[in-house]
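Renewal narrative, Specific Aim 1. Our central claim is that a sequence can be written position by position from structural information alone. The example that follows is taken directly from our test logs and has not been curated for this report. It begins with the structure tokens describing the chain, in the order in which they were read.
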């Protein structure tokens, strides 16, 4: 608000309120204004400002109270004159108090007041009566020519970051587990009740050793039934063969018809088929009997024992888990989808055991799953070769995966994605801070991709260039700025 308008408002309001209140009421208000002036001369700036506030309130209250009916026109004119005189005193007092106290720490406001049109005459009157020299609470510096001096442009402070090379040596540590390279769950191929288990967890065995057996009572009965069926089939086959030989001799003599001979031939063929079926039945029964004994397929040890004697098991259900001796180990892990695209088959990665020994060895990435097995990510397998650590199946470890550059090229620079602005004409741009004068320069850049909150720039910036990272929609090309000391030192860790 213009101070010229404020001074004019004080004059008009005082004149109007003085006419409404009359001489006596304005005289009461004049006492408060005089008290404010005395406080200012005594150097009590706070009391003086409070006195001015009370004077304004008294003017409003006394002026708005209804006048007695006996008040004449002379009283109103006298009140208006006294109100106008008080306005002059207030206008003389107010700038001195503001410039001597409140505006000492507000140079912009002080310049605005000193540039007001009516401040010149006010300062001249104050100097003529030496108001400023009589009190430390009042100050009347020389007026400024014309309007208030132009305000110096505010230099904004911005957040920034330096463009840093984005290499292909990023590391991501993930948990994994050791397991034997040659391992297998063993199961019976027939249903039955377990009669005995000859090994326990951790026990070693040799190829061909009996590991577990089923109760063979029912299987032996089935084998005996098949053998009996074979004896019957052999007898019927011999009988059919003799009958065919007889009928063949009679047919040769012309005693029997050809149709009868064909019937006998069909009976012989059927007997032969039943004999073959009986033979296959014995083989099947014998195989089932053999399958009731679980033997070791290779030298190894027991990783898990899943059944106990007298327990009934179904065919195909694992009863033991075994692993080979000296067959080596491998590592399994699950990696998130943000990492799997940056892994390469055949690359080597460091692994450290979490058993307290902190033994470290190198593993080679062998397999990457084609699809995720859970929300955790994709399964991967690493081969272990000649590890000096004492590895055991089930051990936990941490794998330091070396991630490849997923965007191609080795000259990429990384900056926060917030620094990138999309422009319809220039495409992607950033505000680069000129190193010499801290002036913003809007420059186009080529965006190669993003990686974990970073924008990867292939052209348009040099390593170490500083770019604005926040509030870029409010910045302008050529604008001078101040840098907040919050640069990011490294992005790919």
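The sequence written for that structure reads:
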């Amino acid at each position: 608000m213009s101070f010229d308008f404020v001074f004019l408002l004080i004059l008009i309001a005082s004149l109007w309120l003085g006419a409404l209140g009359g001489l006596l009421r304005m005289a009461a208000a004049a006492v408060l204004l005089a008290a404010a002036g005395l406080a200012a001369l005594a150097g009590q700036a706070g009391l003086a400002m409070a006195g001015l506030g009370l004077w304004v309130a008294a003017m409003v209250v006394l002026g708005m109270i209804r006048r007695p009916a006996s008040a004449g026109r002379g009283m109103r004119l006298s009140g208006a004159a006294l109100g106008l005189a008080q306005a002059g005193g207030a206008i003389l007092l107010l700038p001195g108090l503001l410039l001597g106290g409140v505006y000492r720490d507000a140079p912009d406001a002080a310049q605005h007041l000193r540039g007001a049109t009516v401040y010149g005459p006010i300062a001249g009157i104050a100097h003529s009566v030496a108001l400023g020299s009589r009190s430390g609470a009042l100050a009347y510096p020389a007026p400024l020519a014309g309007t208030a001096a132009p305000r110096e442009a505010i230099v904004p402070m911005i957040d920034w970051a330096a463009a840093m090379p984005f290499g292909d040596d990023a590391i991501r540590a993930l948990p994994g587990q050791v397991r034997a390279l040659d391992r297998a769950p063993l199961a019976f191929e027939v249903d039955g009740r377990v009669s005995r288990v000859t090994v326990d967890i951790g026990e070693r065995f040799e190829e061909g050793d009996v590991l577990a057996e089923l109760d063979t009572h029912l299987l032996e009965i089935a084998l005996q039934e098949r053998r009996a069926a074979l004896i019957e089939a052999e007898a019927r086959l011999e009988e059919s063969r003799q009958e065919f030989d007889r009928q063949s001799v009679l047919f040769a003599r012309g005693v029997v018809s050809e149709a009868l001979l064909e019937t006998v031939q069909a009976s012989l063929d059927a007997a032969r088929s039943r004999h073959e079926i009986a033979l296959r039945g014995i083989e099947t029964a014998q195989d089932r009997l053999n399958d009731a004994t679980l033997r070791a397929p290779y030298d190894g040890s027991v990783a898990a024992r899943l059944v106990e004697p007298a327990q009934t098991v179904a065919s195909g259900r694992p009863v033991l888990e075994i692993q080979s001796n000296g067959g080596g180990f491998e590592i399994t892990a699950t990696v998130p989808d943000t990492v799997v695209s940056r892994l390469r088959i055949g690359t080597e990665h460091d692994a450290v055991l979490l058993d307290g020994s902190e033994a470290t060895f190198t593993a080679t990435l062998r397999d990457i799953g084609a699809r995720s097995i859970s929300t955790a990510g994709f399964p991967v397998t690493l081969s272990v070769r000649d590890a000096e650590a004492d590895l055991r199946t089930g051990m936990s470890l941490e794998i330091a995966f070396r991630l490849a550059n997923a965007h191609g090229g080795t000259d990429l620079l990384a900056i926060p994605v917030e620094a990138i602005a999309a422009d319809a004409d220039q495409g992607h741009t950033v505000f680069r801070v000129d190193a010499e004068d801290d002036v913003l320069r809007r420059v186009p850049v080529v965006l190669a991709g993003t990686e974990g909150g970073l924008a990867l720039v292939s052209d348009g910036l040099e390593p170490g260039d500083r770019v604005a990272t926040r509030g870029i929609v409010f910045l302008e090309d050529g604008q001078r700025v101040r840098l907040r000391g919050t640069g990011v030192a490294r992005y790919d860790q």
